[in-house]
Design brief:
Largest sheet: 6 strands, antiparallel
Radius of gyration: 21 Å
CATH architecture of the largest domain: Sandwich
CATH superfamily of the largest domain: Probable inorganic polyphosphate/atp-NAD kinase, domain 2
Structural class: alpha+beta
Strand order of the largest sheet: 7-6-17-14-9-10
Shape: globular
Strand content: 35-45%
Oligomer: single chain
Order of helices and strands: EHEHEHEHEHEEEEEEHEEEEEEH
CATH class of the largest domain: Mainly Beta
Distance between the termini: 53 Å
Number of helices: 7
Amino acid sequence: MSEFKKIGLIGRPDHAGVVESLQRLLAFLDSQDVEIILEEGTGGLLSNHQQEVCTRETLGKNCDLVIVVGGDGSMLNAAQIIASEDVPVIGINRGRLGFLTDISPEEIELKIAQVLAGQYSLESRFLLDIEAIHEGERISLGCALNDVVLHPGKAAQMIEFELFIDDDFVYSQESDGLIVATPTGSTAYAMSAGGPIMHPCLNAIALVPICPHSLSSRPIVVDGDSEIRLVVARKHAILPQISRDGEVKFTAVPGDEIIVKKKAKTLQLIHLPDYSFYQAYRSKLGWGSRLEKKDD
């Protein structure tokens, strides 16, 4: 008997392949002794479905497993809500890279059967909580699985800010912004900006400048329990923006502060028995394969 009795499904609405995978997944789960609950947007993708439907905000409270059908973006969006419920999540990859979605569409039945049989491992991925301090008021900006980014928005101009770590002043900087990335997000925007790739098990945060106006400015990796504080320069014509996982959440004014720290709840990500972090990244990033041994 599977430990998972109520399984929630989330599907990306604007991808044709998602509907095909959802239908295949539903057909398989219908043959199992489980209850299926669809996220309301996902239910709208499927005609003639008879499953229970609920909002994404309540899905985690009603399920003991969530399956996300889509790409990494779909997993990022789901993680911001599902993580707070301590519900394990696994992804079926209908995106391009799929760092967070392990299962290929061709292996749905085989891999989900393994999960239902208890053949899996759990990996905890931490998220970042974000707050803005504007005119003395604290404003919650939600959480991010990949990264929090201070950037100039649409204007192609540098911004100026100060960086504090645990209230210790680090530097003032002029640049196109700063990426605050988790280990999960180290292979996203942070990697493109020259940041380090971090193993997901690390308790660390990467601070990666974006096109800094200084040759000495380099990425910094700090303890994951650190509090990151960014202060927007008071004399500034540009109103920089704060994004979480690629979504703009706040437009700052001079003097505003942005506080970033680890979220108490983590995302419980399911991996199959044959999962290897290094194999996955070797495949997705095009790293060289092992050299063949030559006979003497």
